[in-house]
Amino acid sequence: MGIIIKPILTEKTEKMASLGDKYPRYGFRVSPKANKLEIKKAIEDMYSVTVVSVNTLQVAGKNKSRYTKAGVISGKTAAYKKAYVTLKEGDSIDFYSNI
Prior knowledge:
- By secondary structure, the protein is an alpha+beta fold.
- The protein has one domain (4-87): 2-Layer Sandwich (Alpha-Beta Plaits), CATH 3.30.70.
- Helix content is 20%, strand content 39%.
- The protein has helices at residues 11-18, 36-47; strands spanning 4-7, 25-30, 51-59, 63-68, 71-76, 80-87.
- A hairpin with a 2-residue loop joins strand 4 and strand 5.
């Protein structure tokens, strides 16, 4: 399994990337065991950009329950790790180019 699992394409991350800020930021779901240096190297190799900084955070799983005919079924969503990557001024990543 690779370091980068998938990009996070939400309204928040789209706004961070295209606000016209000096330094665009992008979000990625990454391997829980990856450190900032590994994430930086993987992004630079995959997208041919220069990474200025990497911020990581652990997202805890949420408890979920639903009501069915058989009764209440409870479970938990998976925990994962996120990375917000800041690129050099002028660099950008186009996730929609190969659609």
